[in-house]
Structure formats: C-alpha cells, structure tokens
Amino acid sequence: MKIAAIVGSTRQNSYNLKLAKHIQKRYEDRFTLQILEIGHLPFYNQDIEHDPSSEVTDFIQNVADADAVLWVTPEYNGTISGALKNAIDWLSRIDQVMIGKPSWMVGASMGALGTVKAQAHLRDILFAPGLSSPVLPGNEVLVGAVHEKMDEQGNLIDEGTVAFIDGAVDNVLPWLEKQSAVHS
Ligand code: FNR
C-alpha cells in the first residue's frame, strides 16, 4: 500500500512534519508513506490552470499514483493552513485525482484540542464534488500540546499518543485498503 502524505505546514521544524515522519518510520513494514512538498506550489489561479508548472503536475501525479492520502494538518486560526487549502484547490481541478481516493487525517497543534476544528473543516472540504474523497468516520488523531510530546530531536515521546496512533492505524489501514481496491 502506497500512501501520499500531505503536510499542511511548510515550516522547517514543523511538528506536523515530524508527526508524518514518525508515522512513516513506525509503520514502514505496513505501508509506504511518501511525504510530498506543497510549499513550492504557486497560488492556484484559473488563468494558469491549463498550463501548470512542473511543480504542480509532479505533485498531482504523485497523488494520482498513491492508493490513499494522509493529510497531516496544523490548525491556523481554527482551520487548515492557506498552504494546505492551496494544494487542495490544485488537486480539485487538474484530472481531479482525489475523486474516490480514500483519505486519512491526523494533526498536531500546540493548543489543547489538537486541530479538532481544522480536521472538521478538512473533512467537509474533502466532500466537495471536485474532491469526493471518502474519510473513515471517527478515528480522529488529534495531537494537542504537541510541544510537550516531542523531544528536541522531534521524536514523539508521549507513550499514550504513540499507542493511540498504533490503534488508529490498525483501524484505518484495512479500511483504506478496501476503499482503494474499490476505487482502482
Ligand atoms: C497557530 N496555532 C494554533 N494552534 C491551535 O491549536 N489552534 C489555532 O487556531 C492556532 N492558530 C494559529 C494560527 C497561526 C497563524 C499560527 C502560526 C499558529 C499554533 C500552532 O498550533 C503551532 O504554531 C503549531 O506548531 C503549528 O504547526 P507546525 O507548523 O508545528 O506543524
């Protein structure tokens, strides 16, 4: 199973990027996680949609080639980041590669509620006609107060959170496999 990870924070020391790397390494025997860049994508604009740059076409091709997408979202002012929305807008247009492709989402924030609002908005966005990506109900992975749960090197050291994500993976992986088989 090949999963594309789209991380909504573009900053170098992003906790969400570290969370994606934790998932990539911990479950490497169960699925391949390819972390995709979104910081270099131009702002979506209908004027350039029909002649997109290679950054855009490569990004879309990588998503098209994946069996499923893992969204790793920060929360900015109670919703997803602008960078993530921009990537989603591109994906909703050229070839509409998300249609029917299953999604899983996780998120980390420094606030207590761990991206709960951002993830609710993201689920809603994924149901837009240009995306139509199924998301397993429940199964939320909300990592709040993430700065207290990672060490200086960015390792996830909170045992409860590690165990919780193990359980979420056990739950979501068979569902992603089934959905991607239906989709392909
Ligand atoms: C934040 N942060 C934040 N946290 C939260 O729990 N709820 C929120 O609504 C917001 N809003 C917000 C807006 C903006 C513009 C910034 C820069 C930050 C704090 C946020 O959780 C923290 O900066 C995380 O470290 C961002 O994720 P990354 O970049 O570490 O992945």
TrEMBL record:
<dbReference type="Pfam" id="PF03358">
    <property type="entry name" value="FMN_red"/>
</dbReference>
<dbReference type="InterPro" id="IPR005025">
    <property type="entry name" value="FMN_Rdtase-like_dom"/>
</dbReference>
<feature type="domain" description="NADPH-dependent FMN reductase-like">
    <location>
        <begin position="1"/>
        <end position="147"/>
    </location>
</feature>
<comment type="similarity">
    <text>Belongs to the azoreductase type 2 family.</text>
</comment>
<dbReference type="InterPro" id="IPR029039">
    <property type="entry name" value="Flavoprotein-like_sf"/>
</dbReference>
<dbReference type="GO" id="GO:0005829">
    <property type="term" value="C:cytosol"/>
</dbReference>
<dbReference type="GO" id="GO:0010181">
    <property type="term" value="F:FMN binding"/>
</dbReference>
<dbReference type="GO" id="GO:0016491">
    <property type="term" value="F:oxidoreductase activity"/>
</dbReference>
<protein>
    <submittedName>
        <fullName>NAD(P)H-dependent oxidoreductase</fullName>
    </submittedName>
</protein>
<dbReference type="InterPro" id="IPR050712">
    <property type="entry name" value="NAD(P)H-dep_reductase"/>
</dbReference>
